Amino acid sequence: MTGIGDRIFGLGLLVLAVAYGWAAQQWPEPFGGVETVGPDTFPTILSVILAAGSLYLMVKPDPDAQWPVGKTAFELVVSVIVLVVYALLLEPLGFIISTTLAVGTLCWRMGAAPKYAFATGLVSAVVVFVLFNYALSLSLPAGLLELH
Amino acid sequence: METLSFLVDGFAVALMPHNLMFALFGAFAGTLIGCLPGLGPANGVAILIPLAFTLGLSPETAMILLTSVYAGAMYGGRISSILLNIPGDEPAMMTCLDGYPMAQKGRAADALAISAIASFTGGLIGTIGLIMLAPVLARFALTFGPAEYFALFLMAFATLGGITGKNPVKTIIAAVLGIMIATVGIDISTGTQRYTFGILELYEGIDFILAIVGLFAISELLFFVESRIGGGGKKIKVGKISLTFKELVSTIPTQLRGGVVGFIAGVLPGAGASLGSFISYTLEKQIVGKKGHFGEGDIRGVVAPEAGNNGASSGALVPMLTLGVPGSGTTAVLLAMLISLNITPGPLMFTQNADIVWGVIAALLIGNVVLLLLNIPMVGIFVRLLTVPPMYLLPIVTMVAFVGIYSISHSAFDLYFMVAFGVGGFFLRKLEIPLVPVILGLLLGPEMERNLGHALILSDGDWSTLWATPLAIGLWIVAGLSLVLPTIAGPVLRRKMQAVIKEDPLSD
To answer: Which of A65, B20, B315, B407 could disulfide-link B54, Cβ–Cβ 3.0 to 4.6 Å?
Structure first.
């Protein structure tokens, strides 16, 4: 079956539209009575439009895109994990260490030699850190490297 | 006359040393952003917004910085088009057609020089058009009531979808998704919590800056990872300028035509710079006819699209500044900056924040001169930077985006959100759902709801007020037409553009 991507997406959107529209009907009536346009009016309109659009997508989907499989998909997942871990470690480890690791890993996974990749990470981390903390006086977390 | 005195005031703002410095920096950074493939103007401006914020720049300085980046990016796009046959950004793809053949014939330096001059002319024409048209349109926009604004926003989505999107339904879906994200948070008029799920961070709504940076920057990184074009970095030779004065003079009519056509295309909401460069190229080809050798390195084939896209980029500022309705992705990002500075874009801005508006316009004029000076002698620097392989560049750009978002709120929660938006943006782009309407929806959603509410309160709940005035009816008709017509004409135009070069999914 062609257009499977659009069909699945359409189904997801339909679920979203229904949930979104249903949630809008559950809100308590605002204090001071109902105006013509309450907090639920606009979301209700949106959910109807989205539902109509999602039905159209399911009925008349576009041809499928080329979805990444195998190694490419793995690399994508790795990149997203690197970004999430970067966000997670930014404060505990401090900016310089976490950035060196994150930028280094990303460069490396994109095809750079590990030596150059992590060197790029370290240099960019130190430059940005110095620039922000001293030139622009915006504090980035020092983390483990903090001087007590 | 009044305009002239405002403009003089604007120059007084723009010529202040620190503003001038930021304009210079912006022009340089913009050219860089424009010339690096994979870092489009919308993306580049989006990444700089958080920085402008955390630096605590005054509104006019921040806007001057970002508009200089915007103008610079339009200049920069041509460099990689000419040298590598890879458009640095979407509007520059028409420049590949004759720019790359010129470079192959050993006239790269000439192509770069003449395109810089054409960009200057186009930018100048566009800015003059902006100066003349914007105040008139702003005065006209004062007559708009809430119903007209509501219709205008619809029209903006419709035209944007009609021109940029292949499938209008997908544009509608994109816009609705954007507006839906904007409804998260506490409703301003009633205080009802909407879609907050009791999460404290969601009470104030989702910050559109992190949504924009996530959608653009992070999804771009993921696209690069997928396509794995990490290499690059081949040696590029530019050579010496052999452009004759006679040749330069012979392109003047082309420059003027391109600039004017580009400006007009830019003013139309949703059209943006890509269409400007496309139309001016095709027009030029028709005017010159068989005498030209377009596609084989005709100098006019470089001049026309460059004048066109720079004219269009100034033109796209007209609806953004006067109506608060951006005409392209990058102007949408500029609008995001204005809104976060607590400045309501629209006709009142011309009276209430005259120093900002005219400061920005004057900065555009100054920026154009700076860019011309920057681009002819210093083009070698940009060319050298072009050889930095994306596998080093993109992770650093992503890191800068992280730093920017983090420094706004110092919260890791925002960073997770940004990554989530990036992943979402990747899937949307894969499914060919355009991102620009999502962003426009995010920005215009609250305004749309507010205007709908006002209109209905004024009419005491009568929905027909939305199409009660001739102006509102006109806007509805244009909105309807722009959704329907491009389904017929759009594919033809698209196919023509695509026949030329495979297109980048991130619009200008």
So the answer is: B407
